[in-house]
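Most newcomers find our protein records easier to grasp once they have seen one. There is nothing in a record beyond a sequence line and a structure line. Getting from the letters to the tokens is the skill we practise here. An example says more than a description, so a record of this kind follows:
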Amino acid sequence: MLKNNGVKIAVLGLGKSGIACANLAVSKGYTVFASDSGKPRTHKEMKLNKKVELEFGKHSSKVLESDIIIKSPGLPNNLEILMQARKRGCLILSELEFALNFAKPKKIVAVTGTNGKTTTTTLIYKIIKSGNKNTFVAGNIGFPISEVVTRLNSKSILVLELSSYQLEDSPFFKPDISISMNITPDHLKHHHTMANYIKAKANIFVNQTKQDYAIYNYNDKHLKKSIVKTKAKIFDFNNLKTRNGIFYKDKIIYIKKSGKIAAKLAPKINIPGKHNIDNILASVMASYLAGTKISTIEKEVSKFKGVEHRIEFVKEINGVKYYNDSKGTNVDSTKVALESFDKNIQLILGGQDKGSPYKPIFNLIKKKVKNIFLIGEATNIIKKQLKGSAPMVECETLKNAIKKIYSVAQKGDIVLFSPACASFDQFNDFEHRGKEFKKFVLNLK
């Protein structure tokens, strides 16, 4: 537990988690200074405790008067103010690390990975909560951990979705059950190298002990190398020859422990794509290790219809089906979405470039896509890298793309909005972008 006797805290970045963290810190008796590089906002606008001292438009030297800096996810580690703070020996933590100082739940189940985090986290939460009402979900899924910790007690189970941004500044974090879905190139502008990205993700299990569990994707080469760093009991998924793990065969899910079948279930699966089998396997394994009954797990998986903005069916118009995959914020995620359909795809790509190459989806596009409709800042980069894969139409905005698709799409086509880019050039976040896509589609005659 961090002492608060005269300790000063600076919160860098006043997004959702930064505001929640500042409020939590004030409630625990800390002196809090909050610094945000954006435009000024009032305490009332942000629902922020009035005791928090504010500055906007810069990160001044006043930040350096603090004993602890809570860095909001996404802020680069090479900010000048942070480099100065490190030289002075200031402790820099994530909101995750700070908030969990004030909670002692029965179990923490944590999920990370480049893709599949939100679907897996949501399904784990639904399964466990069905058997234990004292279950909460937070983290990268949209609920700041600082808002949840005050509601936890010794019987609570906390399910967390964690990004590499959150994990890189959480050197002491230790969940009871960790899940790593996959690692493919993403956020390289932030982490600079793939090695740094992998190292950040590995923080989910490096502090685990022999009493804990670590679940990982057996088919992921990066995870195979990094999972050996944990002392936790290891369970894999996607390994038909597993001794400790879970796999799917002939519509049945098998759980094995010490080489023997410990349980099996045959739920109805409502969400398309092989990637969703991975998400379900990881969710079932985590829920089982958390102590949930197999009958409860099977029932909840059979009820699960997926998560908004993840290959989400929106509407069929004149025989054309529209799908919202706004959460497809990287190339690998878009690859997964393309693999979920056979052919005749009208694909919308673009947004804010993240520094990863688009070439890995070239052949899939050539095989399955009729036209590419380009939006946002990354248009020229995508045009150059995917030249020759499919005809391209420059649209600038999402609304224009949908109008142009509507005029050319034929019965049997699939309209897939899976942008392979971040949303921040034209939207607040991927959720805002997805809702706009759905609004534009639903307004079509």
User: Anything to note?
Assistant: The radius of gyration is 22 Å. The chain has three domains: 8-93, 103-303, 312-442. The mean pLDDT is 92.
